[in-house]
Amino acid sequence: MINCKTASDEDLIKELASSSVLITDKGKEFIRIKRNLGMGEYPVAVLVGDLYGLKSTLILLTNINIHFARIESFELYHSQYPITSINSYKCNHDFLLPKLIFNINHQEHIFHNIEEKTLTAFILQLKRIVKNPAIDNKKSRYHNIIKYLPQRLPKLASQHLITQKSLLYIRKIPLKN
User: Per residue in 50-82, is it b (16+ CB within 10 Å) or e — as a string?
Assistant: First the structure.
């Protein structure tokens, strides 16, 4: 880990290359964000895409926040959100290039024109850090059904919601908790 405040621009770019695919044209945005990261915050993955049609927006995923940045007319436009505010994310393929959609604080951020190679590496790191509630909630719902099904079977049979034959068949199915 290097000291971001005193490190040279070249050292910061080398760290960018080690944390993700080297994105040379977005080095300025990365360096400006990197120098202002909070204590204990470090970059995990980097991606470049077009946010709402605005060309070349840098997406920097850190262990604490996700940053969106672009430089236009020598001015830095920077937004950051805590990882916990990501409600969901999904990747769709449009024509030749994929599209990445973040739902952050119930607002969609849509990125187009992303290279497939860089997206794959970014998604792997994103899955490692961010729990996707859209997927996790489905798992927990089915987990609870399986967990409480053996206790509820006699009640369902007594209310004639399932037949005795179905009850015998269901009891033969191995249920894992």
Answer: bbeeeebbbbbbbebbbbbbbbeeeeeebebbe
